[in-house]
Write a structure and sequence with these properties.
The chain is α+β, with helices and mostly antiparallel strands. The chain is built from 25 helices and 34 strands. It folds into five domains: about 240 residues, 2-Layer Sandwich (BirA Bifunctional Protein, domain 2); about 110 residues, no CATH class; about 80 residues, Elongation Factor Tu (Ef-tu), domain 3 (Beta Barrel), CATH 2.40.30; about 140 residues, Threonyl-tRNA Synthetase, Chain A, domain 2 (2-Layer Sandwich); about 120 residues, Diaminopimelate Epimerase, Chain A, domain 1. GO terms for molecular function: alanine-tRNA ligase activity; aminoacyl-tRNA deacylase activity; ATP binding; tRNA binding; zinc ion binding.
Length: about 850
């Protein structure tokens, strides 16, 4: 067995299986095209539809080195020799081609002849009921019976990768490390023993079954092979080191961590844990960002944020209080950029995202940690409210708190925290004004059972005749609605688009032989039954009548312009900013469009201009917009943009704008992009951390907007008496002139307020201390404070009180010489005076500000000032 670098091992595996007629494919993304999984957790994930038999394979034999993320054992990362969140999985796959015999024999050939691992060190395990695999190892490969261990389902059964899917028995290859110190029975030790002596490094899965949601197994139409050989684990074996962190895969990162923290690896066991956590999480974070994940508070973004913050906390444990994680991007790219070019291509993005997120978290880390221990020292525990506050105020994920308290006996109310988080989400949904249609009335369900759904034919036409199947008024059935009454109508078919997918519903009118009504809103409360919210404007609308349904064509067309524009905008954002951009929400109406998307920074004016210009270029080309209906699985296999968190039916609409954009979408669109007219961005803003929002207008709205700007420009030209190109220059000049005059006015007011004594000034002594009182009218508060300072300088030693009379309130300040604060407390004096004026306030012993509503009582208070001071 010779020393091999990780690059040599990776390439030798792919070359070996290429020699066995396997097609070598690059790694798929960490974001799987699979709504059941958050991340690609195994090499077989990209091929699940093939294993299921839903898609025919292009190649019968494939080999890959697949990027993977698993976080189920995150608490063990850094503490054990081999746990990682990000790892590479070498694998060879057969889709109905070869099966157990070839898979086992080739695995043995690669391990013993290519890697040259001594046969005497190798053991295998098989599923206890898999006699076929046992016989192949024994008779075909020639391994001694005692070195073939039969194990149960918990050890030698793989899958599915998710709640349902392909699975089957497996066989595993182990290497004997020779370590016997933890084994209670060294004579009979085998892979069945959990002492750690035997290390499993290759798992050959015989995918024969599909598991449904109830756990039932059915045979697949074709037998498949799926193997997983962990590169990090194999590299540790080939390099003769104890842990994966001691391999050439991690050492460049660890060396950089040593330099940043001025420490040495392998010099302190506790510090070593933190170093390993940082090295592991730095890899995971970088690869996740390269594949389009950005920090957020849910889903994949939550996992990314958790890993990043966990790394930052471990850096703090090593004594570092400055942003550092972005500095690990360079050695990572140097080590792995040639294998995974997305790291090189997204290097700048990775650094920017990591730096901004770390800066944001570090601002809160110290303060949050102090607050955490304040609570614990006071209460001895953490309630759900405490956890929610730490999460909401300081960004402390509950898992981070659990880790910080690991090893202690401090109790935390995690269930209470979860309840509060759910309440917050409900409040957010309510605040967003989302319609809640989940509580469907029994009447609607009965209607659906009786009539079925509403047939939507509005893609093809904007008018149709349809039967009124039911009328609903105040959640109960009605026979008719008269002039001025409101209700909801169910038709057998409709041309009115119902609100969904971010697009608002159509509006329009319905006409019957007996009446006319406005259609104000259309929605789908249950299955595919459409409810038309109407108001009768003339006559009577009756159940069972035939009605003419007429969509407001102008508003439908305006909405379609905006919807197609969002598709153009989405495509341009990804081309301009990067593939990390993902749609996070949208609103499409006739007046405007709103598009939320994942991005880590505010857009510059140059970026906004470039995006706007690119969208308008696509509009000017009048690109054709086509719509196709396809099976969902077929659409997923194509390069189609989709929100796979959304629920789609078996059939989906694929909206294509030439070769510019292709998305799954149920909305309405224009025939070609030239119909959109001018696209104008009117705002770009932040929605939340990592999510930006663009609002834009098209068509007639953009013309109205430009007309308004044109009118405003001409008005400014007339007012300023300049040419258009001089408006900005003249405005800036006038603003500067106003600022200078404001300064002069302020100085004059200060001079007047602090001038010589007048009729509204009062002076007296209390116990030998001088008191100076002045009453002024409608003065800025800042000037009153400054005036008190000036008058105190003039007085030298004593107390200054200034009352400021305003129309509906009185404001005053009290200033006391510092050497007199033990005798006269400004805060207490202000408090007593404020009570007399019907208000409140206070402050420091040497200065206080207060006020009240009783303006007319100022003179009376001044006359009785000695009483208020002494009390």
């Amino acid at each position: 067995m010779r020393y091999m670098t990780s690059e040599e091992i990776r390439q030798s595996f792919l070359d070996f299986f290429k020699s066995k007629d396997h097609t070598i494919l690059p790694s798929a993304s960490l974001i799987p095209n699979d709504p059941q999984l958050m991340f690609t957790v195994a090499g077989m994930v990209p091929f699940k539809p093939i294993f299921w038999g839903k898609i025919k394979p292009t190649y019968p034999r494939i080999a890959t080195c697949q990027k993977c993320i698993r976080t189920v054992d995150i608490d063990n990362v850094g503490k054990t020799p081999r746990h990682q969140t990000f790892f590479e999985m070498l694998g060879n796959f057969s889709f109905g081609d070869y099966f157990k015999k070839e898979a086992i024999e080739w695995a043995w050939e690669y391990v013993t002849e290519v890697l040259k691992i001594p046969e005497e060190k190798l053991w295998v395990s098989v599923y206890k009921e898999d006699d076929e695999a046992y016989e192949i190892w024994k008779n075909e490969v020639g391994i001694a019976e005692k070195k073939i261990v039969k194990l149960g389902k918990e050890d030698n059964w793989w899958g599915p990768a998710g709640p349902t899917g392909p699975c089957g028995p497996d066989t595993e290859i182990f290497i004997d490390s020779g370590r016997k110190e933890n084994c209670p029975d060294t004579e009979n030790c085998s892979p069945a023993c959990d002492c750690g002596r035997f290390l499993e490094f290759w798992n050959l899965v015989f995918t024969e079954y599909n598991q449904d949601e109830e756990g039932n197994l059915t045979l697949l139409h074709q037998k498949n092979i799926d193997t997983g050989l962990g590169l990090e684990r194999l590299t540790a074996i080939m390099q003769g080191v104890e842990t994966t962190f001691d391999t050439d895969i991690f050492l460049p990162l660890i060396e950089k961590i040593e330099d940043i923290h001025s420490i040495r690896y392998r010099s302190n066991p506790e510090r070593d844990i933190s170093i390993r956590v940082i090295a592991d999480h730095a890899r995971a974070v970088a690869f996740m960002i390269a594949d389009g994940v950005l920090p957020s508070n849910e889903g994949r973004g939550y996992v990314l944020r958790r890993l990043l913050r966990r790394a930052v906390r471990h850096s703090s444990l090593l004594g570092n209080n400055r942003p550092f994680l972005h500095l690990l991007t360079e050695p990572l790219i140097k080590k792995m950029g040639s294998i995974y070019p997305e790291l090189k291509n997204k290097g700048e993005l990775i650094e920017q995202v990591v730096l901004k997120e770390e800066e944001r978290f570090r601002d809160n880390l110290d303060r949050g940690t102090k607050r955490l221990w304040q609570i614990i020292n006071t209460k001895g525990k953490l309630t759900g409210n405490d956890l929610f506050m730490l999460h909401d105020t300081y960004g402390f994920h509950v898992e981070l708190v659990e880790e910080m308290l690991s090893g202690s006996n401090i109790s935390i109310d995690k269930d209470g925290f979860v309840d509060l988080m759910l309440e917050q989400k409900e409040r957010a949904r309510a605040a967003a004004g989302n319609r809640e249609y989940s509580a469907v009335s029994n009447f609607i369900k009965v209607l659906y059972e009786k009539f079925g759904g509403t047939r939507f034919i509005g893609y093809e036409m904007l008018e149709t005749h349809s039967e009124i199947r039911a009328i609903i008024r105040e959640e109960s059935q009605a026979k008719e609605l008269s002039t001025g009454e409101e209700g909801e109508i169910v038709f057998d078919k409709t041309v009115f688009y119902a609100e969904k997918g971010g697009q608002v519903s159509d509006v329009g009118i319905i006409e019957t032989p007996s009446g006319v009504a406005e259609v104000q809103h259309v929605y789908i409360p249950h299955q595919d039954i459409f409810l038309h919210k109407i108001k009768v404007t003339k006559g009577t609308i009756k159940e069972g009548e035939q009605a003419l349904l007429i969509v407001d064509a102008e508003k439908r067309k305006a909405t379609a312009r905006n919807h197609t524009a969002t598709h153009l905008l989405h495509a341009v954002l990804r081309k301009t900013l990067g593939n990390h951009v993902k749609q996070s929400g949208s609103l499409v109406g006739p007046e405007r469009l709103r598009f939320d998307f994942s991005h880590f920074a505010q857009l510059s004016s140059e970026e906004i201009a470039k995006i706007e210009e690119s969208v308008n270029d696509a509009i000017l080309f009048a690109l054709p917009v086509t719509v196709e209906e396809k099976r969902l699985e077929e659409a997923k296999s194509e390069d189609v943009t989709a929100l796979f968190e959304e629920k789609y039916g078996d059939k989906v609409r694929v909206v294509s704008i030439s070769d510019f954009s292709k998305e799954l979408c149920g909305g309405t669109h224009v025939g070609n992009t030239g119909e959109i007219g001018l696209f104008k961005i009117i705002s770009e803003s932040s929605v939340s951390a990592g999510v930006r929002r663009i609002e834009a207008i098209t068509g007639k709205e953009s013309m109205r907007y430009l007309r308004k700007l044109f009118t405003l420009t001409n008005t400014l030209k007339d007012i300023l008496q300049v040419q258009e190109k001089q408006i900005l220059e003249k405005t800036l000049f006038l603003m500067q002139e106003i600022k200078e005059k404001d300064k002069e006015i302020k100085k004059l007011k200060e001079k007047l307020l602090s001038g010589k004594s007048g009729a509204n000034d009062h002076e007296f002594n209390i116990d030998g201390v001088k008191f100076f009182v002045r009453i002024v009218d409608d003065a800025p508060v800042e000037l009153i404070r400054n005036t008190a300072d000036v008058l105190m300088q003039r007085l030298g030693r004593g107390v200054v009180i200034i009352f400021n009379r305003q129309e509906d309130k009185a404001i005053f300040v009290v200033k006391v010489s510092s050497e007199l604060t033990k005798r006269f407390n400004a805060g207490l004096i202000a408090k007593n005076i404020a009570k007399a004026l019907g208000g409140g306030g206070g402050g420091r012993p040497d200065f206080a500000q207060a006020g009240g509503k009783e303006v007319s009582k100022i003179e009376e208070v001044v006359r009785s000032l000695e009483k208020y001071v002494r009390s």
